[in-house]
Amino acid sequence: MYIDGAFVEALDGRRFAVTDPATGEEIGTVPDATAADATRAVEAADRAFASWSTTTVDERADLLLAAWRLMQERTDELARLMTREQGKPLRAARNEVVYAADFLRWFAEEARRIEGGWLPSSRPDQRFVALRVPVGVVGAITPWNYPISMLTRKLGPALAAGCTVVLKPAEATPLCARAVMEIFDEVGVPPGVVNCVTASDPAPIGEVLTGDRRVRKLTFTGSTAVGRLLASKAAANLQRISVELGGHAPFIVFPDADPVRAAKGAAALKFLNSGQACISPNRLYVHRESAEAFAATLCERVGRVKAGVGTGEGVTVGPLIDEAAVAKVAAQVDDARAKGARVPVGGHRLVDGEFARGHFYAPTVVLDVTDDMVIRREETFGPVAPVIVYDDVDTVIDAANDTDYGLAAYVYTRDLSTAIRAVEGLRFGIIGVNDVNPTAARVPFGGMKDSGLGREGGHEGLDEYLETKVAGIAL
Ligand code: ADP
Questions:
Q1: How does pLDDT run across 91-107, given as a tens digit for each residue?
Q2: Do 147 and 174 touch, CB atoms closer than 8 A?
Q3: Which pLDDT tens digit goes with each residue over 441-460?
Q4: Whose CA is nearest to atom 23 of ligand 1?
Q5: Structural domain total, the chain
Q6: Is 278 assigned a catalytic role?
Q7: Distance from C-alpha of 191 to C-alpha of 50, rounded to nearest angstrom
Q8: Parent domain of 368
Q9: Residue 284 pLDDT level (bands cut at 50, 70, 90)
């Protein structure tokens, strides 16, 4: 753990093990925090806030830029660690580190643009000044699927704003979090500004981060169930909240789109991180006219996807994070099959040979998905591409919106009006138009409805860590 500028053990000395999801091997142990450790970290963050919040934006920006540089220098080392701890293929891990570092640079730049205003009054002897100030100590809880970029997306803006942070990373990926702490430590971020507590049981840490009056904001990325729970606790303390939660992304192929190009896009996007992404497409709506061509290309592509240990040559799909994840995917595919879906590719666990000790599910295509299937409603978080054939172009947007989630959506069309109508009609926060990567550090990322509150990245990502103060000045 990293508290008050030092790498420390838990107060009671306990540690827990971290395993490689591809091989089941133990790859290290980390301190196992209790509520007392979390409170210690909050104390450190609270002490540090007084001086950190009054540093100049240039000092903060320079430290973030130094962290950006160091993270880039360590891309390879961090990617190897990520592949071992989280499972994604090395190339994807490298891409994630670059994306993660981008947030540090972006928010270093944004720090210099924290502005206020000089406001007129209706009284001739009065002026108003509005200023933007950091919200205070931030509690940050992050998931395992993007174990470095989900940290920098919160730490970057928090530090840029002048906030201090207590981070609790996911129990599956604490080693990546430690590696990020080493970077902040080495570039000279002052003690207490960033703290990290690792714990095998997250609930008591969550209680501290939502219950301690010194914590003024909670930022969370993870499941909708846990986000809802934490947001309700934070509300009791009137903490500010940003929560980035689950998704159930539609991917709509309009009849005028090139079905082959769309299928290639779907195959590339769906299997990123083995489908363990909140923006992963979970419903591929394909018009009946192009369904056959789409399915043929999709099956051919998915059939060629190579699953394996993330360091293996040519591997593009790694393991799932744990056995529960595999069981959930298997149950959804079995349910769809039992209700009449066809499964021309995959549709089973991978258990032989190199897969024996890891958590693998075969890259899978499910055709003829209907509304009564679990996969139509629930987030899969696995390497399964479910195809729904539709007939009516006028109602496909409504069908896509028929979900409690509202994070990402994708549309394929060559018609400008269709694209604009889709972007305007879809109740989702992030929309790809003939594009499978509609995210970047410079754009606001976040969802509607059960997919969350607040935005990360872009200008909005910094706003979440600032509040406005006004001074009325009599002359
Ligand atoms: P996932 O399904 O992606 O694992 P979770 O929502 O369970 O999503 O986990 C996301 C993060 O939330 C992790 O850091 C996890 O430790 C944390 N978490 C899970 N349950 C709680 C809780 N009751 N209180 C605080 N944090 C929690």
A1: 999 999 999 999 999 99
A2: no
A3: 999 999 999 999 999 999 99
A4: 203
A5: 2
A6: yes
A7: 12
A8: 249-440
A9: very high
